[in-house]
Structure formats: C-alpha cells, structure tokens
User: Which sequence fits this backbone?
C-alpha cells in the first residue's frame, strides 16, 4: 500500500509525471493518437470534473476545476463512487502562498477523510495544475484497479463536496471542516475522446464544457448552491442538534426536577413529570432518526465514533426508562422497579448531558462556531445537577411523610402521586365520617 504524503502528492518530479502521462496517454499524446480513449466532463455551480480514460493502460486522468483562484478559496473534492465509504478521493485547496494543494484520501463513512488510503497512490500532473485569477485546476492521474469502487461505464458516479468557507492548513494531511455542499456527478466514460483543437486541457469553467461536445450528467443529491444553510447534511445535523438539545438540556431536566421537588411541593406532580418525560422520549426518537438517516444517506458507518456510541446507549436507556416509569407507577413504594428507575434515570441524564457536550464539540470543529462542550457541561452538570442535589434535602421530609402513611392501615389507599397535604385531608375526612357513623349507632332508635 502506498500512502500519499506531502512529498508523494506534491514532490513528484517532472520525469515521473511525464512517465505517468506517457503511460496513460496524456494530453499531448492524445492529440495525435486518441484511439482507445474515452472522456466526459460534468459540472455544477461549484466545480467541474473532467475524466479521460485510457482503457489500454487502465488509468484515468482527472482535472477538477473551479472559477475561483489566485487566493485561498476553501476546499473542493471529488471521489469515486456514490458514497463516502471506501471512496478514493482527491481533495484540493489553495495554500497561503497561492499554490494549489492536493491530498488523496478515503473515509470509512460519513466522517472526515484521512490519508490512510488503501487505493494506489495518485500522481499529480503538475503541468495542468494551477491557480490564478482565471480559476483553479487540480490535475492528477490514477490507476483503475479491480478492487476500487470505480468501474468506468456509461454512468460512472463520482461524489463531490465543497466548503468554500474553510481553508485547511498548507499540510496535505491537514484536518478539514465538514462540507457545506455535496452531491454526485455522473460521467459517461464510454464516449470517444475528442481532443481540443489546440491540444490543451479542458478550460477552467463551471458551466458545461463544450470544447468536445461532451457534457456529463451533473445530477446530484445536492443540498443547494453551496450556502452552508442550504446543505442537506448541514440541515440534518442542525436538526439533530436542536432535537437533542431540547430533549436533554430543557425538557428532561425540567421533568426530573419536578419529580425531585414535586413530591413535597405539588398537588399533582406526577402527570407533569410523566408527560414531560414522554416529550423527552419523542424528541430523542426524532433526533436519533434524523442522524441515522443522514449517516445512511451519506454512505457512512453507523456508531463508529464515541459520540455516536454514547448516543446509542442514551437512546436505549431512555426507552428503558419509559418502560420502568410506567411499570413502577403501578407498584408499591420502595419496589425494586422504582429504585432501578431512579438509578437508571440518574445515569441516563449524566450520559446524555456529557454526550450533548461531545456533540457541540464536533459541531464547533466542523463549522467554526463558538459553541463549546464546557458551556453545555456547565449548564447541565452545574445548574441542573446542582438543583437536583439541593432537592435531596427534601428527602427527610419525604421519608417522614411516607412513614406516617404506612402506619395508616385504614381508609382510602394512598396514591404515590398525591402530595401529603391532600392525603392528610382525605384521612381527616375519613375520620370525621367514621365519627359520625359511630355517633349515629350510639343513639337510641327513634320512637316515631
């Protein structure tokens, strides 16, 4: 396996490039001997991709172009196949010195691509790579292996992605922020190649190429024109963030605090606690479904990082909590199910708050916002956790009331969702009623 580094991607000599171009049938040779070559170009509003396939050498020469250039313009990428997982990608950007940078990468799913590739190393075509006021072009040559996700055909798919707002460092292995737009380009690599009249590479353009009459299908699962807010992925991640923040940082804490304080201060605390926790579960299910759909849609691997694994655990615990809560409500006080419900609830809330912080940390890394996991943890563990711990001071009063209730063997059965004051009123009413009945029995029968 050959893993590209800064030297392998950018330091290839002119002799090596010339050798690759000669083997693959490069632009100069193509002008004189186009037999056996096929080619196509596809464009969208962000970039163009031109591919020239030499069936005899089993190699493809690529040129990715954009109209912007001469300065840092964010990053642009294309990759083989229609999904990120296993795609052989080339990511290009412009360095601080104004020179184009290329980095060959792959990904196991919908996550940041790395340079730990399994495909054969691509070779840069320096003569056709540039960035100036007319635009930017990144050009390279790659072998087509039987193990790759690429199979040249009438509909050869290539994923593409851009982030015009984020400029990676000058190191080819530098971290990149998440794309703001993406999609799929379909090229027809069965079309015979017709070289341009001047023998030069396809022009830099972001409108369908017409130099050889070959324009690919630019159909794409794109989210829009490149604006961050229009990106499908961006919208799905934002929706996931909103649903989970509402669930675990707003609704669930309120429900838990009602359960902690309401037993001694509210006449009807349980319906509030139950309904709010039901709302938490609904929000969590929606948020969970959104992110699972996003990963599946992007061809990624599910639950392949810490945030995703903890999130799955929290989701399972939340469902379990719902079952324990409903079941425990039907049992007597101090039933083991109720004790387990309390313990699992504390663990679930702690994990949820911690994981929301991890989520915001990922959001900050990908989108450059000021959101911080420490703010989330401060609010969650500091404010909510502090209030919950203070509520434990009410336990002695609770236990005293419960003890008194257990000593009452007659009258209406005590419901755990009744506050002590209401229960005492019921008991006093019962005693008054019994006293009246005893008085009536002690009186002599009427002579009438």
Assistant:
């Amino acid at each position: 396996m050959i893993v590209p580094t800064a030297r392998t991607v950018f330091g290839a000599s002119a002799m090596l490039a010339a050798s690759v171009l000669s083997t693959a049938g490069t632009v100069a040779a193509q002008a004189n001997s186009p037999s056996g070559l096929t080619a196509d170009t596809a464009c969208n509003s962000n970039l163009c991709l031109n591919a020239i396939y030499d069936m005899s050498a089993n190699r493809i020469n690529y040129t990715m172009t954009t109209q912007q250039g001469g300065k840092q313009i964010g990053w642009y990428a294309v990759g083989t196949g229609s999904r990120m997982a296993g795609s052989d990608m080339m990511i290009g950007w412009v360095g601080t010195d104004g020179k184009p940078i290329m980095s060959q990468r792959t990904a196991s799913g919908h996550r940041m691509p790395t340079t730990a590739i399994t495909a054969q190393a691509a070779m840069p075509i320096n003569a056709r790579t540039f960035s100036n006021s007319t635009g930017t072009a990144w050009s390279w040559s790659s072998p087509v292996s039987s193990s790759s996700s690429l199979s040249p055909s009438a509909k050869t798919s290539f994923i593409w992605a851009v982030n015009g707002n984020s400029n990676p460092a000058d190191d080819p292995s530098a971290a990149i922020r998440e794309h703001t737009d993406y999609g799929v380009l379909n090229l027809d690599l069965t079309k015979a190649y017709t070289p341009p009249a001047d023998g030069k590479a396809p022009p830099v353009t972001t409108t369908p190429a017409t130099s050889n009459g070959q324009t690919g299908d630019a159909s794409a699962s794109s989210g829009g024109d490149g604006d961050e807010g229009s990106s499908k992925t961006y919208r799905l991640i934002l929706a996931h963030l909103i649903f989970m923040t509402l669930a675990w940082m707003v609704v669930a804490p309120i429900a838990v605090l009602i359960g902690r304080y309401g037993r001694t201060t509210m006449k009807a605390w349980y319906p509030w606690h139950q309904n709010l926790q039901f709302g938490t579960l609904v929000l969590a299910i929606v948020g969970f479904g959104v992110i699972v759909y996003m990963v599946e849609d992007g061809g990624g691997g599910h639950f392949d990082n810490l945030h995703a694994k903890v999130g799955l655990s929290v989701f399972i615990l939340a469902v379990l909590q719902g079952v324990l809560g409903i079941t425990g409500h039907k049992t007597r006080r101090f039933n083991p199910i109720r004790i387990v419900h309390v313990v699992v609830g504390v663990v679930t809330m702690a994990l949820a708050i911690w994981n929301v912080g991890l989520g915001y940390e990922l959001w900050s890394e990908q989108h450059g916002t000021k959101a911080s996991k420490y703010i989330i943890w401060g609010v969650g563990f500091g404010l909510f956790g502090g209030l919950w711990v203070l509520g434990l001071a009410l336990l002695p009063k609770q236990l005293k009331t419960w003890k008194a209730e257990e000593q009452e063997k007659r009258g209406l059965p005590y419901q755990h969702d009744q506050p002590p004051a209401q229960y005492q009123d019921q008991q006093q009413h019962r005693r008054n009623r019994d006293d009246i009945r005893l008085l009536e029995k002690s009186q002599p029968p009427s002579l009438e």
